[in-house]
What we know:
Pfam families: STAS
Largest sheet: 6 strands, mixed
Number of helices: 4
GO molecular function: anti-sigma factor antagonist activity
Structural class: alpha/beta
CATH superfamily: STAS domain
Family: Belongs to the anti-sigma-factor antagonist family.
Domain STAS: 28-136
Number of strands: 8
Organism: Prauserella flavalba
Amino acid sequence: MPSTEPNGLTAQSPANTRTTSRDAHGMRIEASHREDGVVLARVSGEVDLLSAPELRKWIQDEVSPPSGLVLDLDGIGFLGSAGLSVLAELTERSLGERLRWAIVATSRVVLRPLEATGLAAQMPVYAGIEEALGSVRAAD
């Protein structure tokens, strides 16, 4: 049965997997901390000036090497410049800390700003969760 922790996250522990969720300013993050060391986070809603700092904080709090991260962004309805900044910072962090990560994105809402800014060429972007998980696990 899920329980609410003091930081506003909901946690449960089925079969060596910890699941958390966070709602902030029109954005929701649902994450599974998998037994293979990969954190699979489904982000939905709007990633804008209000919610992007929450995404940044969540990543800092929940993901650290040697774990890997897959961000499923297909549930996003809006990706603003503040959200792009968080992704760009994650790219830099992955190089400095050797963090394994990938993005799942098929919607134009996410792909268009990534492509327009040139960030898509710098980030590991995949069309499906299994493909992204495989790339992160293969980086071991």
